[in-house]
Amino acid sequence: MWLEKVRGRERGELRARRFEAAARARRAASLALSNRKEFATPHHGAVNSLQVDLTEGRYLLSGASDGSAAVFDVWNATEYETGFIAKHRHILLVDKQHQNGHKFAISAAVWYPVDTGLFVTASFDQYVKVWDTNSTQVVMDFKMPGKVFTAAMSPIATTHMLIATGSADVQVRLCDIASGAFTHTLSGHRDGIMSLEWSASSEWVLMSGGCDGAIRFWDIRRAGCFRVLDQSQSQLGRRSPLLESTTENDHIDSIGPSTSTRSLPHKRTGNSKKNSPTMRKCQNLIHGHLQQRLHPGLSSSQNRATSHYGAVTGLRTTKDGMYLLSSGSDSRLRLWDIDSGCNTLVNFEAMRLQTGKPLQLAVTDDPSLAFVPCMASIKAYNLWSGTTFRAFRGHYELVNCCYYSEQDQVSLLVNYHIFGVNVSISTMFLSVQECRNFILAAMIDKFLYGLHQLQLLLKWYSIYIICHLVLCKPFLLGLPGKLYSLTILRKIWLKLS
């Protein structure tokens, strides 16, 4: 099936976007517990936060409940164990023994979106700290009025460097890295804030989920929230990408307060000139009154709307910025249309979620799958039907966070010509470095087959192991390193023969 799509794309029968969507879907469907990559964690407590940097897609940042934060190199393994298991150890560690380390659990750890020179940690010790990756020193810190449950930075921001923080206090506070001070606070929640998410389509829109069960939308350029999601307001399924009713006002609605009422055109009468000033004045007053009354920050009915029957423990937007996925302590997942603010009524299958702490959700770039930590496993749900696609099991304790990254994965299809027979190896998704090593190993395999015809399968396995152990690292040394490795291999082969 996959080869047919590849050939169809080569012949021009399959469009590029459809081929990309098929490749992404196949990649997501082939996810499984890796048996060739292992991370040796230095944490002695539960891992509460994970994020791969947004610039290179190479460095993994983790924060744990023992107050430590670590950075791993996802591309280059620290060492290789027997059986070709790539073991990744931390290249940076900040723990309680550090002079500026956190005293209590780290609840969130996020990369600075522009580069990997800075990262931010939030902790239950009521501090949010900005770290310099090169010197492992604190650049600045912010004191909060309570336990900090979450912190977030906009991945698309170009005009500000704000850290949104949610704590046991009822206010969302924005910390500015440029000035080292609080810019302003966002008031509206009646309980602590457990989850925050920046919009993927506007750098000014922030979404917050509180322990009061409300999800609020904020435009940080204005006072007060401009929308509160209500689970009783719903629409059936996903909407079409292009709406006929989309106007300039609807586009403004994505970054500002929504007005569900629009002035209708009035019929002209004979005395329209005489009454036009009065009519205009009345229309302005009525329209202004309705707009003010419909503002969630002023309307008591909409201000008390809830999205979950309990605390909102997790928020995640799709990459296109059109939908928002939320989880609550009521063990429910809800998918929201961001433009209309309606619940899409996707019925996600039964699950059991943690209730006492924030959860980190993940969504594929398609978006087609949603990954949700469900007790000791991670469940992948179809985002549009709510059915369980697959359950990933491997942890022995509760899972608090998950992160999905598609960067630097290569689809590799290899055809071997062995003893006059074509052997096809199924498509694998590897990192760039692993792809280079695999291609080099394939070239060496072909070279060895050209030198000698294999007599014993055991000898071939020995050479294959040596190829990976000897040639993976000299690959970066250029041609002399490769020739030197080939010389060693030839000597070993002659001894084995």
TrEMBL record:
<dbReference type="InterPro" id="IPR015943">
    <property type="entry name" value="WD40/YVTN_repeat-like_dom_sf"/>
</dbReference>
<feature type="repeat" description="WD">
    <location>
        <begin position="99"/>
        <end position="141"/>
    </location>
</feature>
<feature type="region of interest" description="Disordered">
    <location>
        <begin position="237"/>
        <end position="278"/>
    </location>
</feature>
<dbReference type="InterPro" id="IPR019775">
    <property type="entry name" value="WD40_repeat_CS"/>
</dbReference>
<dbReference type="GO" id="GO:0031464">
    <property type="term" value="C:Cul4A-RING E3 ubiquitin ligase complex"/>
</dbReference>
<dbReference type="GO" id="GO:0000209">
    <property type="term" value="P:protein polyubiquitination"/>
</dbReference>
<feature type="repeat" description="WD">
    <location>
        <begin position="305"/>
        <end position="346"/>
    </location>
</feature>
<dbReference type="InterPro" id="IPR001680">
    <property type="entry name" value="WD40_rpt"/>
</dbReference>
<dbReference type="InterPro" id="IPR036322">
    <property type="entry name" value="WD40_repeat_dom_sf"/>
</dbReference>
<feature type="repeat" description="WD">
    <location>
        <begin position="186"/>
        <end position="228"/>
    </location>
</feature>
<protein>
    <recommendedName>
        <fullName>DNA excision repair protein ERCC-8</fullName>
    </recommendedName>
</protein>
<keyword id="KW-0234">DNA repair</keyword>
<dbReference type="GO" id="GO:0006283">
    <property type="term" value="P:transcription-coupled nucleotide-excision repair"/>
</dbReference>
<dbReference type="GO" id="GO:0000109">
    <property type="term" value="C:nucleotide-excision repair complex"/>
</dbReference>
<keyword id="KW-0677">Repeat</keyword>
<dbReference type="InterPro" id="IPR042238">
    <property type="entry name" value="Rad28/ERCC8/Ckn1/ATCSA-1"/>
</dbReference>
<dbReference type="GO" id="GO:0043161">
    <property type="term" value="P:proteasome-mediated ubiquitin-dependent protein catabolic process"/>
</dbReference>
<keyword id="KW-0227">DNA damage</keyword>
<dbReference type="InterPro" id="IPR020472">
    <property type="entry name" value="WD40_PAC1"/>
</dbReference>
<keyword id="KW-0853">WD repeat</keyword>
<dbReference type="Pfam" id="PF00400">
    <property type="entry name" value="WD40"/>
</dbReference>
